[in-house]
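request received
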Amino acid sequence: MARVVVDVMLKPEILDPQGQAVQRALPRLGFEGVSDVRQGKRFELEVEGPVDGDALARIHELAETFLANTVIEDFTVRVQDADGNERPVEAGTDAASEGAVA
Amino acid sequence: MARVVVDVMLKPEILDPQGQAVQRALPRLGFEGVSDVRQGKRFELEVEGPVDGDALARIHELAETFLANTVIEDFTVRVQDADGNERPVEAGTDAASEGAVA
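response:
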């Protein structure tokens, strides 16, 4: 069982009122030095079987068709390792196969 | 300028109807092999200045008091490197200082 994370964020050119509200509130709350905040969604998928290139290709398709609205949102697929580090994987690249997790 | 990511997810013992709805829809849409889905929030903070132990401690405090409802939610602070890899950092540990990004 491996954990694959899909992050869905509004595209940079799309206004993000939620993130702006957070960013504007921070100085009032005593937190300086944060110049921008963007808020998005995070999906944690528990995947059965090996996370190989094929599985990642299916997850990319799933994210593109179902989790993200690609007109206004970008998504990133990341594989989480045992230490909690998350490495982005592109669809159909060698990186996907390099990152195979049993 | 460095990017710090705060992930906010419902605690494992809290029911996640959004994630369940996604998980149940997947087989209908032709995606098999995903045994669980959890949906949460992702905040991308653009931090001015160095992301050292002090900055990360402030971001932990910010996440705990403002971004997450720690009664029902867990949060993770991650530092994103130039390759897009995201490494979790604990508050007040050496990991935070090891991970200092200028």
